[in-house]
UniProtKB/TrEMBL annotation:
Organism whose genome encodes this protein: Paenibacillus artemisiicola
Residue ranges of domain ABC transmembrane type-1 in the record: 58-262
Keywords: Cell membrane, Membrane, Molybdenum, Sulfate transport, Transmembrane, Transmembrane helix, Transport
Gene encoding the protein: cysT
Positions of transmembrane segments: 12-34, 54-84, 96-119, 139-161, 242-264
Family: Belongs to the binding-protein-dependent transport system permease family. CysTW subfamily.
Its job: Part of the binding-protein-dependent transport system for molybdenum; probably responsible for the translocation of the substrate across the membrane.
Protein name: Molybdenum transport system permease
Membrane topology category: Multi-pass membrane protein
Compartmental location: Cell membrane; Membrane
Subunit structure and binding partners: The complex is composed of two ATP-binding proteins (CysA), two transmembrane proteins (CysT and CysW) and a solute-binding protein (CysP).
Length: 271
């Protein structure tokens, strides 16, 4: 009996600790942001989010995040395919490098882009001679977003390729289907849930990127100022209301994306 009671007490204490950790680090900060944004009422909130600089920053962030997500879907799907379906020297090293953006501080990633593509670099200098500016313009922001969100699609696709029943693919070839038709009708549908989930997570992560972008964007209002940098500027200007209002927009959009990801994954498990 004492053993059972101790087990129940330990289980209760463990669950309580996890819930307390979750509440303190996630729930309360989220409640705090929503409370701060609406503390003065609806009118100040609406005025903050419809401010021209704020609205331009949010729209620019969404636009460039979409570009970065499309690039990640294309490259991530191909890289995931190559790493699973092909065997070649250095494959394991390349596979481990996929997670590097998760481990590397994003500011370091921004510095790498600045040194590689900046005006004084070989690539940046040649691009400047051709009249194409990279750093301190929108292309640098997209590159930074692609870098920090690089692993999502790859890691979303790889498990599905590993779990896929190869007998369906072989049956398609046996029935005379070409490689292209087999890929589009047999392989791609199996990969699609991972691609969608990875794309939505990459988009949500790109929306919130700050460290890599702030070094390469130039942060010009109305041109290269994205939402996360705008929020930082509002905090520095002692405008917590404006920062919280824009944060609520991004946070709500992230919640919607997270819900969509969970829906996709639930449907995949149901199948």
């Amino acid at each position: 009996m004492n053993f059972i009671m101790r087990g129940r007490l330990w289980s209760f204490g463990f669950r309580s600790t996890v819930m307390l950790y979750f509440i303190l680090l996630i729930v309360l900060p989220i409640i705090g942001i929503y409370t701060q944004s609406f503390k003065l009422g609806w009118a100040p909130f609406w005025q903050s989010v419809t401010d021209q600089l704020a609205w331009e920053a949010v729209l620019l962030t969404i636009k460039l995040s979409v570009f970065a997500t499309v690039i990640n879907v294309l490259l991530g799907t191909m890289i995931g395919w190559v790493l699973i379906r092909y065997r070649f020297p250095g494959r394991s090293i390349l596979n481990s490098f996929v997670d590097l953006p998760f481990a590397l501080p994003t500011a370091v990633g921004g510095l790498m882009i600045l040194l590689l593509l900046g005006p004084n670099s070989l690539v940046g200098g040649q691009a400047g001679k051709l009249g194409f500016e990279i750093v301190f313009h929108e292309p640098a922001i997209v590159i930074a977003m692609v870098f920090v969100t690089f692993p999502f699609v790859i890691r979303g696709v790889q498990p599905l390729l590993e779990e896929m029943d190869k007998s369906e693919e072989e049956a398609s070839y046996t029935l005379g289907a070409s490689r292209t038709r087999t890929f589009l009708q047999v392989i791609f549908p199996s990969m699609l849930p991972g691609i969608i989930s990875g794309a939505m997570l990459a988009f949500s992560r790109a929306l919130a990127e700050f460290g890599a972008v702030v070094l390469v964007a130039g942060n010009i209002p109305g041109k290269t100022l994205i939402a996360s940098v705008y929020i930082f500027g509002e905090i520095e200007s002692d405008n917590a209301q404006g920062a919280a209002a824009v944060s609520v927009l991004l946070l709500t959009l992230s919640f919607l994306i997270l819900g969509a990801v969970n829906l996709v994954q639930a449907r995949r498990r149901a199948k």
